[in-house]
Amino acid sequence: MTASIVVEHLTRRFGSFTAVDDVSFEVGRGEIFGYLGANGAGKTTTIRMLCGLVPPTAGDARVTGHSIGRHPEQVKQAIGYMSQRFSLYPELRVGENLSFFGGAYGLWGRGLRSRIDEVLELVDLVGHEHDRTSDLPGGMRQRVALAGAILHRPAVVFLDEPTAGVDPVARRRFWSLIRRLSAEGTTIFVTTHYMDEAEYCARVGLMVAGRLPALDSPAGLKATYVPGRVWSVQGPHLPRDTRARLSAVEGVTEVQSMGAGWRVRTEERVQAADLAGPLGPDAVATLDAATLEDVFLAVVNADAQKAGTARALGGA
Ligand code: ATP
Fold this sequence. Notes:
37% of the residues lie in helices and 28% in strands. It has helices at residues 43-50, 72-78, 94-104, 109-122, 138-150, 168-183, 195-198, 218-225, 242-248, 272-276, 292-315; strands at 3-14, 17-28, 32-37, 58-63, 66-67, 79-82, 156-160, 187-191, 203-208, 211-216, 229-234, 252-258, 261-266, 284-288. Residues 14, 19, 37, 39-45 line the site of adenosine-5'-triphosphate (ATP).
């Protein structure tokens, strides 16, 4: 893997609070790398350090070969950044916003003009150059912001919750753009709270309280953190005490209510009849796929347990 981003023991403290705690990982050229975590886990702080906007307290990272600690200005020129509250001027027209971005990266004249045409085509906004940005729906504004972030052909693009608050159709469209950029060799570092989007990433890092306890492909994370089987248990007349009956089956590790039915995690040895049997003739158990949401919950729970154990040991 040719690494575009190499992160080594990256740490950021604000006073006595550690927002990013000794994080290390690499991202390959052209990879779509997803960064997940609860609110306040440290994702934005990591991105802002990797963009050269916030200096690390300890550790370092190289982004396209430039050290974020020693050469943040070179990092800023080499990357594109779409922040959570992306920096479009709502009263400006789309083309004016893009000219502004281009100017900030040293593009001008005919070169800027033809590059704006190119990115408008790429993000499917041809014909909207003269639209006032504030008049556009959220999904289109997001594509303008992405266009601004890639105008100067950066090798790495950081996207901080780029699809927050837009509808599923617009999200899907945005992701097909991201995939196209990645296929052309652009490295994508993206944070999201949408687990379906995380599935599009080649690898996913999961942050918990400033640390990065899990990092793997979506399939690898599921195999590690959600071992065994996941079932969907349904039926028109399930008994009132279904949860208790399912929990009592040997090999069941977790029972969650889901819609009108139940989602059950079990060890490998458990069969459909073991789950449906105790619930009467109407019950049906079918194998379901583990999701990244299952992974997320498992990692957060494992971390909370570890923290509890450490506290207990510390207090003993
Ligand atoms: P979200 O999903 O809500 O965007 P996040 O994972 O991006 O969350 P960060 O924004 O990186 O989280 O914040 C991590 C922690 O660091 C939070 O507790 C936040 O309050 C704290 N923090 C961030 N910036 C500062 C700052 N400038 N001064 C003090 N604390 C800060």
